[in-house]
Amino acid sequence: MKMPTNRPPIHPGEILLEEFLKPYGMTQTEVARRIGVSRKHISEIVTGRKGISTDVAVRLSRLFGTSPELWLNGQLAWDVWHAMRGENASKLAAIEPVASRL
Asked: In sequence order, what are the residues at sequence separation of 6 or more whose Cβ sits closer than 8 angstroms to the Cβ of residue 50?
């Protein structure tokens, strides 16, 4: 599946909220309690202020019966998209690929 280039991918916190918390009728507090993290931590993920770590991905996968990769791939897509377009984008463009010298 090709990622859109004109807009950022959906943050995994939005996926957590829209595809899991709402359909399951769960609160952020309940998810936090069930996976053993703070409610604030889940809130920061849901609002996009914090990413999903490997540890949280494994916990969420256990809770919802998904793979950890579902969460980590979403986070990776988000991180890469923003890294390629963030404040360092011009510095990245200035890097000359080694392959172009061959």
From this structure: 13, 41, 44
CA distances from 71 to 42, 51, 87, 95 (A): 13, 10, 25, 30
**Residue-wise pLDDT tens digits, 26-61:** 999 999 999 999 999 999 999 999 999 999 999 999
CA distance 77 to 10: 9
In the block, residue with structure tokens 């899991």? 20
Distance, CA of 29 to CA of 92 (rounded, Å): 40
Tokens 């920061």 belong to 44
**Predicted confidence (pLDDT) per residue in 70-96, tens digit:** 999 999 999 999 999 988 888 988 898
Check if the beta carbon of residue 87 is closer than 8 Å to that of residue 43: no
